[in-house]
Amino acid sequence: MRIRALALAGLTALLLTACGGDSDSSDGGSGGSVSDVAASQAAADRSGPQIVGAAADALEQADAFRMQGSMVIEPGPAEVDLHVQGSDLVGSFVFGGQTVRIIALDGAVYMQAPASFWTDQGAPAAMASRLGGTWVMSPAEEGSEFAEFSVASVAEELRSPSDGATVAEEAVATSLDGLPVWEIRDSVGSVMHVAAEGEPYPLQITKTGAEAGVMRLSEFGTVAPIEPPADFLDLSDLAG
Fold this sequence. Notes:
alpha+beta
């Protein structure tokens, strides 16, 4: 039985390349909340690539953030809520009416999902019933790529997009949820909103097309204990 496990490899790639696609600012992009002086400084001193680089640095220095939003993964739309801390994470995905909780800790990936999820992965009915609602540890070969999703890997993707996109020189002053931000696009239509006051955190990343998604980032630098499940089954032992 090959456990697709939320299409871990594809999901990791999508999360890491989530800076893409067309987007509308949540307030219509009027730009009125950022002063003309600040806008002039951005044009002269803070180009799009510089702001994106600063956002990557700020994210890496925070070493923790929360990612919430929606995206398209095989087989369809999914809701995502993850707390990423260093190279570890905890959170959940909801897709196809199924809620899957996940913990990636010290290179191991644990999941808790309903029996229907395991049935979709090809598990026999008896095994799916046993796994439903139970924490399981994925085989290393299935979870390794997802376990590589980290604060550092996200920051590096911002600096050097794996899709080869180039960041536009122009940074547009606008607002997001009433906060001043820089809106930066790239050569494939990607949109990133970066905080224009305080630390230049990446606040929203949007992608359209076959892998459409809107991710909101928050809770930068918030550290909380991430623990493995108290009790779990090793899926590699069951798979035989």
